[in-house]
Amino acid sequence: MSKRLLFILLTGLLLLLAASSSSKPAGSFEALFCPQCWDYLWGAGSVDLKGNCAACGKYPVALEGQTAMWWWCSSQERWLEAPCDQSAVRHCCAGEESIALVSPGADVFWAWYCPVHRTFDGVTLPVLGIPICGTCARPAVKVQATRRAWYWCESEGVWNPSACPLDPVRKCCAKHQGILLVSPQPRPWATSEK
Ligand SMILES: [Zn+2]
Ligand SMILES: [Zn+2]
Ligand SMILES: [Zn+2]
Ligand SMILES: [Zn+2]
User: Fold this and answer.
1) 3-state secondary structure (DSSP) of residue 13
2) 3-class SS at 17?
3) pLDDT per residue over 10-39, tens digit each?
4) Residue 123 and residue 153: Cα distance in Å, rounded?
5) Pairing mode of beta strands 29-34, 61-73
6) Neighbours of ion ligand 2 (CB under 5 A)
7) Is the model's pTM score more than 0.85?
8) 55-59: long-range contacts at Cβ-Cβ below 8 A with a sequence spacing of 24 or more?
9) Are 131 and 125 in contact (CB under 8 A)?
10) Does residue 9 or residue 153 have the better pLDDT?
11) Neighbour count for residue 99 (Cβ, 10 Å)
């Protein structure tokens, strides 16, 4: 074997090792989330000059996020995962962007979600077996979700994953909990349900 060939083989092996050891999913980013307002801080004016939530003034927590898109097709009146064939001509499909949590942990379940309002709770009347958003009346999409909670400690002025040790006495910690959208990739649970 020539030295050059050996070098190429070794370089290739190293590249393979580097690729397999990077566990970060492609396209993920650090998303700022306000547990008080239960919303991601994105778009103009969502954070103040100090980097705190513009709505409540508390600092956000950083979550590993990924963009999730659904397309509302106004001619088919349903949500699609990509614009339909007709959209280039008829402009019938409009994209709605959400942030989905990457690496959510074990507690992942199926939920109904409105990509416009980014809510799980507005879903009411089922039409044709599919629940609809209570606000926009569009059919909800079936998504994977997880429950999260943060505690705001008034005496420390920080977000904690649980109530602080002094909370039983001081009653200084307030729990904020809700449901977060989960990214479908990677799909370790894909075999359990389609
Ligand atoms: Zn806030
Ligand atoms: Zn369309
Ligand atoms: Zn809605
Ligand atoms: Zn506390």
Assistant:
1) helix
2) helix
3) 555 555 444 444 455 668 999 999 999 999
4) 32
5) antiparallel
6) 73, 84, 87, 92-93
7) no
8) 58/34, 58/152, 58/159, 59/159
9) yes
10) 153
11) 21
